[in-house]
Amino acid sequence: MRSLRSLPSREAGFVEPMECLAVAKLPDGPDWVYEIKLDGYRALAINSNGKPRLYSRRRKSFNRQYRHIFDALRDLPENTVVDGEIVALDDAGRPNFNLLQHSKSQAKRICYFIFDLLICQNRDLTQLPLIERRELLKSLLKFQSPRIRIAEYFESSARAMLESTAEQGLEGVVAKRKDSKYKAGKRSGTWSKYRLNRGQELVIGGYVPSARGVGSIIVGYYKGSDLIYVAKVRAGVVPATRIQVFAKLQPLETRTCPFVNLPEVKRESRRIGLITEDIKKCIWVSPELVARIEYVEWTERDHLRHAKFAGLRGIRDAVGSEEARLRAGLRPPPKLHVRLSRMQLSRRHMT
Predict the structure, then answer these.
(1) DSSP H helices in the chain
(2) Residue 93, by phi and psi: left (phi above 0), alpha (psi -120 to 50) or beta?
(3) In the chain, is it the N or the C terminus that has fewer CB atoms within a 10 Å radius of its CB?
(4) Given 180, 196, 212, which residue is the final one in a domain?
(5) What is the total count of domains within the chain?
(6) CA 24 to chain centre
C-alpha cells in the first residue's frame, strides 16, 4: 500500500459522485467485488481546514437535515473527502427508505456508510485502483461515533451475493471492478448496480394519457369488494406498450373512479400518491385488466416504491368473485421476514 506523500496534491472540496450503471445481469469474476446496494441518500463528507460539511450528490447541504451525522464527522481527518450513503436502519438492521423520510423522529436509526476515500490530507486518491482506496480508507479513518460506519465489500461469486441479498429482502447489489478509478460524475460501467425487484399482479383502474396513448397506469388490489389504490406506474410503459395498453383500456373507460381510497389527502412523498390535483389528469376504466408490476418495496402507507410495468393480462372472471381475486394474487403480499446473516447491515456486522 503506497504512502499518501507519493500521491498528487489536491485541495479538499466537493467532488461530483461517480455513478453506477444499471445492468440486467450482475458482472462476475475475480476482477469484481460486491457491496450491498444501500437504500438511502448519496452524500459526500468533507473536512476542509477543520470545517466539516455534508453534501448531497447535487451539492445541497445536509448539515442541518442530518445534524447527528454532521456532528459525528468531527473525526474525519482534516482536508479529507469521502463518498458514502445516508441510510436509516430498521429493527433487523436493514436499510429502510421510509424511515429515512422521517429523519427527525427516526434520528437514532440514521447512519452514514462510507464506501470510498477520494482525498485524504490534501492528497488525491481518485486515480488509485478501488482496492487501494478501500485499504487506505480502512487503515486511515477511525470514527468514535457508531453513526459513521465503513461499508463492507465482499469477494464472492455474483450468484452467492445475489442469493444472500435476496434472502434478506435487500434492495440489490453493486459490483465494482477492483482496478476501477474514481471517475467523478461518470457512469463508466466499472461500477454496476443490479436491483432485486419483487413482482405482484395488480388491477388497472385507470391511466394517465399521453400524446401516444398511455403515459402511466393506475393500479391497486382488492380488499373485500373494495379496490385500493397503490401506485401510478410509468416506468416500463415504453412506446410500444403505450399503444398496446391504450387499445386494451380505451373500451373500458368509465366516469367513475373505481378506487375507494382516492383522492388521497396528501402524498406520501413527492413522487408517491394521488391527490385531487393529480386526479384531474386521470381517465378511469372498469377494473378488468391485470398488470404484472415489479417493485422494490411496499411503503408504510401501502404504496409501491420504484414500481415498473412488466406485463398485462385479463381477469374478467375475477371481477365479481372475491375468491377469484385472491386466487389471481390481487392482494398485497405478506410482510417479508428477514433472517440475519453475516451480510446483514447491523452494527455488530460493520466496522
Answers:
(1) 67-72, 97-100, 130-140, 158-167, 239-249, 276-279, 322-327
(2) left
(3) N
(4) 196
(5) 2
(6) 16
Does residue 116 contact residue 84 with C-beta atoms inside 8 Å? yes
- CATH code, 321: 2.40.50.140
How many residues make up the chain in this entry?
351
The label of the residue with cell 390535483 reads 277
Nearest by Cα to 44 from 142, 119, 152: 119
Q: What is the DSSP letter of 61?
A: B
**Residue 299 neighbours by CB under 8 Å, 6+ apart:** 98, 268, 272, 305
> Which residue reads 440486467 in cell numbers?
24
Together in a domain, 182 and 322: no
Distance CA 43, CA 81 (A): 11
Residue with cell 393480462: 313
Residues 151 and 250 in one domain: no
What pLDDT, in 10s, does the model give residues 77-107?
A: 999 999 999 999 988 888 888 788 777 888 8
- Tell me what percent of the residues of the chain surpass a pLDDT of 70: 88
